[in-house]
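Example record

The entry below shows one chain as it appears in the dataset: sequence first, then structure tokens.
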Amino acid sequence: MSNYFHYVERLGIEIPVLDVDWEAYPSEVRVEILLRWEQIRGAIPDRIMKLEASIIYKQNQLDREDDFPISCRLNSEIADLASIINDLHLWFRVNQDLESKTHH
């Protein structure tokens, strides 16, 4: 299964890496990929919650920060975390696309 997934450190999850069209994979391989993806996908909400907690922590720091360069750094870190959350939401929805292709 590792041939079909690649760990992305920024996201903290493995993502599918499919070299050919989905329909070109044998049905057994597609089922294995979907099962593995469902396991990974199931962990995405927990990952998002941890990132949201980090954002809240940094926002609280920002509320008390008077030093402009530190405020800028915190804002940048918050934006980066929000971007990761957005990407994770997109990956979370990928399963719906794969499942609909499998059923057709």
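Notes for this example: The beta strands are 5-8, 13-16. The radius of gyration is 18 Å.
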